[in-house]
Amino acid sequence: MTLRVLAAMSGGVDSAVAAARAAEMGYDVTGVHMALSSNPQSYRTGARGCCTLEDSRDARRAADVIGIPFYVWDLAERFHQDVVEDFVSEYAAGRTPNPCLRCNEKIKFEALLDRARALGFDAVCTGHYARWDGATLRRGVDHGKDQSYVLAVCTPEQLAHAIFPLGDTTKADIRAEAERRGIQVAAKPDSHDICFIADGDTQAFLAERLGRAPGPIVDLDGNRVGEHEGAYGFTIGQRKGLRLGRPAPDGKPRYVLDISPVDNTVTVGPREALDVDEIVARRPVWLGEPPAGPIGCQVQLRAHGEVYDCVAEPAAAGLRIRLASPAKGVAAGQAAVLYEGDRVLGSATISEAVRVTAGAE
């Protein structure tokens, strides 16, 4: 029996080629574009977008070239609730969210997949650069475009109904293939930044929703060195835009070390105080049997970030990760994704970072 596959088509080159490949593989493919905003004009357009009217039209044209049915599904309310509101509440709590990761978790592999399954589709096809063989999730062969990090929050049950046709190909080859196929978005630039912040000003976006909330910026000794308009406007490791009224005694730049929403205080200090050698993470998701004890592996702490050797161990809080070498700028709210070589073991959400430098907490 031919598998029925729903191809999520963003309007970009990756999802278009993924849909074309799925059709060539003999699947019964239907394309769908997710309308994620009730007011598309408020979202990023052109090279920076992925869910605007312009992108919807690009997706429809690609589906016509491929020769598959195409629909637009309105998921704006779900996206606003699960991604946009989550983004705002996470910043308000002093954490740094990854909205693209949350979109994968809550929209593409929950809301979209649930609706697809209810309509009789067997799987969802996307343009992610990752490899899934039905049991194991691995990095895409193009490590510069690898998206296994943002997929690691998905459960094995969700991934069991996923197809990633691009995992064995480089981005350059995908663009060349799109051009050969006559897909007009072959040269369309990649989407980047946050799609629902039209002008890219995250701090202004948050201020509009959370309001002005002045508070102190202090150094590690508790000395007030500046003022802020809202602690939510900062992230761990940030150096620019601090507007400090008092320079550091050594004249070196200072970085955000801690964000406390309870007393609305931002703590800054030297770069070396960002060093972290242990991480506590919650809500672990394993893509196999959970380990019974400590395991040696690698961990990635940001999308396209550095990879660290570590020992990960189940703990009462979820997961404790001890790094072999210090990491900098580890932010609560980001995902810690565990790897064994290029194979994803699982993921968890960072809740606490233990810093090497005494007193930095």
Automatic annotation (TrEMBL):
The UniProt entry's coiled-coil ranges are none
Species of the source:
Actinomadura namibiensis
Can you name this protein?
Answer: tRNA-specific 2-thiouridylase MnmA
A GO biological process of this protein is: tRNA wobble position uridine thiolation
Keyword Magnesium appears in the UniProt entry: no
Give the chief site where it resides: cytoplasm
Q: Spell out the family assignment given in the record's similarity comment.
A: Belongs to the MnmA/TRMU family.
Q: Which domain of life is it from?
A: Bacteria
Give residue ranges for domain tRNA-specific 2-thiouridylase MnmA-like C-terminal: 277-350
Residues where ATP binds: A8, M9, S10, G11, G12, V13, D14, S15, M34, G127
**What molecular function terms (GO) are annotated for this protein?**
ATP binding; tRNA binding; tRNA-uridine 2-sulfurtransferase activity
For this protein's source organism, the top of the classification is:
Bacteria, Bacillati, Actinomycetota, Actinomycetes, Streptosporangiales
Q: Which reaction does it catalyse?
A: S-sulfanyl-L-cysteinyl-[protein] + uridine(34) in tRNA + AH2 + ATP = 2-thiouridine(34) in tRNA + L-cysteinyl-[protein] + A + AMP + diphosphate + H(+)
Q: Where is the active site?
A: C103 (nucleophile), C195 (cysteine persulfide intermediate)
Q: Where in the cell is it found?
A: Cytoplasm
Role description: Catalyzes the 2-thiolation of uridine at the wobble position (U34) of tRNA, leading to the formation of s(2)U34.
